[in-house]
Records
---
Amino acid sequence: MTNAIEAFELTRNFKDLVAVNGVNFTVGAGEIFGFLGPNGAGKTTTIKILATLLRPTSGRATVSGYDVVRQASNVRRAIGMVFQDQSLDDRLTAEENMLFHCVLYGVPRKDALTRMEELLDLVGLSIRRKDLVKTFSGGMKRRLELCRGLLHRPAVLFLDEPTLGLDPQTRSHIWEYIRTLHRELGTTVFLTTHYMEEAEVCDRIGIIDHGKIIALDSPSGLKRVVGGDVVIVKTSDKEALLAAARERFNLSGQLDDEMVYFETERGESFIPELVKAIPDILEVRLRQPTLEDVFLKLTGRAIRDTGSGKLDAMRIRRTVHQRRRQ
Amino acid sequence: MQAFFATVYIIWLRDVKRFTREGTRVLAMLGQPLLYLLIMGQGLRSAFKMNIPGFDYLSFVYPGVIGMSVLFTAIFSSVSIIWDKQFGFLKEVLVAPVPRAAIAMGKALGGSTTACLQGGILLILAPLAGVSLGLGQIIVLAGLMFIIAFSVASIGTLVAARMETMEGFHLIMNFLTLPMFLLSGAFFPLNTAPAWMQPLMRLDPLFYGVDALRNVIYADSPALSYVVAQTVTVDVLVLLAFSLVMIGLGMMSFSRTE
């Protein structure tokens, strides 16, 4: 069976900015594949190239076996898309948005009606089908967009930051719906997110930073990059702590704002020794490694510190614009 | 081909649905022409005396007000394109397996339809301007309004297709709509304009639109030859040719959008 997505040396420049820089990856059919990285890392640019909305500067990619540049209309027929910014018409009803989509994709009306019913049911929006979308909450709009993207039975569903701007509870619901829809329909899902904890849904994750994939593995495989447990220490003198740890335990820690991170095989026994050896410790925490730690380990910085490039500035302006309109 | 018409239909239908559902727009649709007619017509009436027996300024300006109302509604309906293709429903259309040229056609038709509905209100208000219209005239006028609206909406669509920001669009549209409005002959007939201005007026598509409306509204008036510049056939041919060029360019622009 052919891969759902293949990318070879995919590159896209915006004037002097290299947004995507020689990216290679494949996504198997039926897989949930995620791009994880900070804002401006090149996630949205990659998705836009795969969805035929941007042309790559160099390199090539196929979706469902079709070339994204030369066979763009075949690709468009094979994919569903949920954009980072809402693309529903909020002065139409949920049903109208869905049916308009079906007309655009040439879904026969009879099929359209049964599929719409099924999908709206799966995400719990059946009773709101006749309501104007502007009366919907952010989470409901996202659910509706998920359904709409699946109406024409695409082979691959693209989700660009599907939980951006939603509150934590709604976010976890959206992930549940994504999992349910994936289980029911078996669609390949390609998604991007900058929420570390949410990337765990994926079968495989590519961590992307400054336009390059710096790691690609299953969530548990990625976490093995971080050796064992993570011990987080707060102290008044971080430099002294780092020096002492290197000297006595042969451990090099990572700095992040006010905390120092150590990775160690057995955190439980390391903590008492550390406290004994270094008196100036204010706070100690122990936890299993998360993708956040993986990112910190690979890039030397926390995901929330990053960004503020040109693309981010555009995106922030866009979000502000959008809020103003609502 | 089928996908093309389906897309045109969807984009048109969406514009019409949005228009009829928006209470404020329907209200503006009623209020705006009334304002134009009362303030502009009545206000200017005393300042301008027409030396044509049985013909006063208010009746002269009436077709011009229809043209102006159609101009503004049609132009502003295309403003939404810029927003829409970045953050709205048009993105959904851009990623769909449909010809993008259909977007230009759908938007131009949608804008013309809403502009026609607005112009229709002015036809009902004809008695206020001292003009009486027969049913036949109203039907012909509705058709003319659609052609005028379509030519204007095509310009709007073409400009919007090439624009990325709202600011840029407003700037360009101000440079286009205001001259189009002022040179349309809505307020003074071609033959009273200074010689240097007349060729400029002949470059304005709205000039032919207003002239066509006058041809039909004053078909039976003895003053017809004083207020029109050419026959309605010439007007319609010019408008159609202009629309074809503009919508063609608009469709090409949309096909090329990345």
---
Amino acid sequence: MKDSDSFVSDLRFTQANREAFWAVGLAVLNFLWWYTTAYGFGSKPAENYTYVLGLPLWFMLSCVGGLVLFSLFSWLMVRLFFREMSLDDYLPENDVEGKG
Amino acid sequence: MNIQVLLPLIIYLAVMFSLAFYSRKRLSTSGNFLEEYFIGSRGMGGFVLAMTLVATYTSASSFVGGPGVAYKMGLGWVLLAMIQLPTAWLTLGVLGKKFAIIARRVNAVTVNDILRERYQNRWVVILGSLSLVLFFIAAMVAQFIGGARLLEGMTGISYNTGLIIFASTVILYTCIGGFRAVVLTDTVQGIVMMIGTVALLVGILHAGGGMEATVTTLREIDPALVTPFAPDGFLAKPFIMSFWILVCFGVIGLPHSAVRCFGYRDSRSMHTAIVLSTVIVGVIMLGMHLSGALGRAILPEITVGDKIIPAITLTVLHPVFAGIFIAGPLAAIMSTIDSQLILASAAIVKDLYLNYIRPSESEKAEKVVKQLGSWTTLLIGLIVFLAAFRPPDLIVWLNLFAFGGMQAAFLWPMVLGLYWKRANATGALTSMVSGLFTYFYMVSYVKRFYGMHVIVPTLAISLVIFVVVSLVTQRPDTDILKLFWGRDRVKKS
């Protein structure tokens, strides 16, 4: 569907869309990690579990490992894909391209 | 009564009050009362933003209710709690800078302000405000009960006295100081929660003879406690997976966290906050729920869920440290209530009164608004306080009811409003109504939908209705599109 009325798009919103996409992507990745480690290593009977530092392996990977890993990933995401921008009204020097 | 536990608490409450008075001073010197009282003039830096988000997410259920369930369910419930890890980057990232930019364009103070500009429909705003007030009251009652139970369990003072001390502190400092007080106390509370969580976990491991011995004891009680499935297979996969919607993706739709997504100072603050609050939320969720689960190895015979954490704390920590620790969950509870209280008040004063019963813009009317802010906060606080006198049993579920209801009302109108040009008022309104109706009906009569929490079908239905209705009705005005996608500010009269 095309816009019938044209107006100049704010390029900050294009970047905002991209950032929203990354945020959702990272959450989906977090889900996959959480699911595969917890149920991949935790679905057998408790007698057969491997233990790491006293905790079951599935828990160590999914909960403790997930926390460390995704804290790191959230930092990387912000560093690599998020841009600083002015949040105030449009200023000409914020413009990247021109018409959008 | 336990004076050693009580003393650190009294000092703590005194600090909360002094922050409120400091904020009140800022309030009296501020040029724009509404913007200062309800959003703190958009001045939050990265650290404060992170702490206030953390403090808002972690509530009674993270410190009292949730660990209580973990005690019964074991490590599987900790796995469920960790689903909340992405909430900070999701809410800040998805609502993100677009939300903040538009909030500045339209001088939004509340989430409903944004909905009003996007949909230009009074019924969307009225329905939004009313459901916000209703659900916040339900949520706050649950939080008050949690707080009073905790005081009862830890200090030996009666439930009613605890409720009075606790409620009067929160209500007063919120009334007095507004959003800035809420955010400042949240920051202190966030720090206290971190310290409390770590102290308790260390205490439990010490009492249990180290991690290995504690987990082994747990396994001897019931091997299912160390599996992801919990005793009797209670945490079946469809059920636990639906929490990815309820406590993770759906959290984007919670108005009290969303409002923080436009209250920050600049984009750098937001970047810092994403990383900081992810780490802190993660540590608190993991630490507290693991404490609840492992606590069973130390005190195996407690039956009432909400009394578990107080009992364990008093067993493993020295009374003075216990007093400092108990400040943690009290902080969590207070910081959730205060933000809901201020928003419920904003919904009534700003979204309903000023928009639709608008008084004249004389100097006298300006004065009325100032007083109305504080008085409405006080009144809502009192209603919640009175409701908490006859408490229902398990606070987690009561809290989750309000939680899902807010998502049913706000998630799609906010997210689609920001990112889908075709979303219009008719779509938003039918989606809100059908979402709320479905949720009420399903919570009352269906309970679980094919093994899932009913929030999943609720959000699916309201999404489909939103999209279908929007597509068959008119596209939004160009002015709205310009405001939400264009570069130019649309001048309003």
